[in-house]
Write a structure and sequence with these properties.
The chain contains twelve helices and twelve strands. The chain is of the alpha/beta class. It has two domains: 1-150 and 292-319, 3-Layer(aba) Sandwich (Isopropylmalate Dehydrogenase); 152-285, Isopropylmalate Dehydrogenase. The chain has a twelve-stranded mixed beta sheet. Strand 11 and strand 12 form a beta hairpin. The longest helix has 23 residues, at 316-338. The protein is globular, with a radius of gyration of 24 Å. The N and C termini lie far apart (65 Å).
Length: 365
């Protein structure tokens, strides 16, 4: 936090040929946003100026050299790119991908140095950003690699209606069955359970686990993963004190609205979980990277090349990502503070108390 206690939110510019700057500008057109955080964009003042002109927006920003120069009440931008940066709205371009990576790299470095409190990433083009330093299918995997403590990341998509985590995130469909192992499911369920407690302030979370195969495998007719892997893992996690249920056939589970009965869902693969969430909350859902010390959120949509520069992008998902990052930061602090100095145990277990009383009676006799 800054000296005045204002939360510093680092924001990466994302792909400069997409809608990143538009949704950032539209979000901070509302002056009330500056009451809850000090925003610091890791990007390019030149790119910002280009988008501001193309969108005919009159939002001011403050160009700074380092995070400590950021001013509360202003939209601050740190230059991470070459001044000769070329912008071609609506185009997938390696130079734009490199600019997105440079911004992300510096933002992560700032987080590790304690200069920002949370990170919100604008959308990237996952193909354009590929380079020697970034050979990952997305932000989630890159941030896990950047983690200094070896923690594992979990992608959670959130909205007002539901929270959906994915056991396998950016993985080709043909590779998913082999990836679904008891070890993987145990890891993901454990991370999800801990995140629900720590990041979302839910004391005893209830987790629904979806099946891999249609109709939950139909008792082995359509696949045996439910019988041999998913169901035994669910039983094991329950025996360990985690409340998880299933496996549920995804279509019936979502279609019946049964998700209302649970705090989160673990889907087996990307589209199984994200398709229904985006159908329900495309413009309000957010992506959260759970399991890591870094707090990172993003809007639930992509670069939207088809509408870049047209001024029609909906900024609500990005705004919700900022709200979520701040809420998660506060929830983590509350969780840590509540457990920092636990009270010393001042009572006897019933069986011990009974034995103690029996001994006392024997001494008196």
């Amino acid at each position: 936090m800054s000296e005045k206690g204002k939360i510093r939110v680092g924001i990466t510019q994302g792909d400069i040929n997409g809608i990143g700057y538009e949704i950032i500008f539209k979000t901070f057109e509302n002056p009330e946003m500056f009451d809850i955080c000090t925003p610091i964009i890791f990007g390019s003042p030149k790119a910002a100026a280009y988008h501001r002109k193309a969108l005919e927006m009159d939002i001011p920003y403050n160009a700074i050299e380092k995070v400590t120069d950021a001013q509360a009440g202003k939209l601050n931008i740190i230059n991470c790119n070459n001044d000769e940066l070329r912008i071609e709205l609506g185009s997938s371009d390696a130079e734009a991908g490199q600019a997105a990576f440079q911004a992300l790299e510096k933002a992560v470095e700032a987080y590790k140095n304690g200069e920002i409190d949370a990170l919100v990433t604008a959308p990237i083009d996952k193909s354009a950003i590929q380079c020697e330093e970034f050979q990952f299918p997305g932000h989630t995997e890159y941030l896990q690699e950047c983690s200094d403590d070896g923690d594992k990341a979990l992608m959670i998509l959130c909205s007002n209606e539901l929270r959906v985590a994915v056991a396998t995130s950016h993985l080709a469909l043909r590779d998913i069955p082999a990836a679904i192992t008891p070890e993987l499911l145990e890891e993901k369920i454990t991370i999800l359970n801990e995140s629900l407690k720590k990041d979302f302030n839910i004391d005893a979370p209830k987790i629904a686990v979806l099946s891999l195969n249609p109709h939950a495998g139909d008792n082995g007719l359509l696949g045996k993963e439910e019988i041999e892997i998913i169901t035994p893992t669910i039983r094991k996690m329950n025996d360990g004190g985690i409340f998880c249920y299933g496996p549920f056939a995804a279509d019936g589970f979502m279609g019946s609205g049964k998700y209302d009965q649970f705090d989160a869902i673990l889907a087996m693969y990307h589209d199984q979980g994200l398709a229904p969430l985006k159908a329900l909350a495309m413009n309000s859902g957010i992506n959260f990277t759970a399991g890591l010390s870094i707090i990172r959120t993003s809007p639930a949509h992509g670069v939207a090349y088809d509408i870049a520069g047209q001024g029609v992008a909906d900024e609500n998902s990005f705004r919700q990502a900022i709200y979520a990052a701040i809420d998660i930061m506060r929830n983590r602090k509350f969780y840590a503070d509540a457990r920092r100095n636990p009270l010393r145990k001042l009572y006897f277990e019933k069986r011990d108390d009974s034995n103690r009383l029996n001994l006392q009676q024997a001494d008196q006799d």
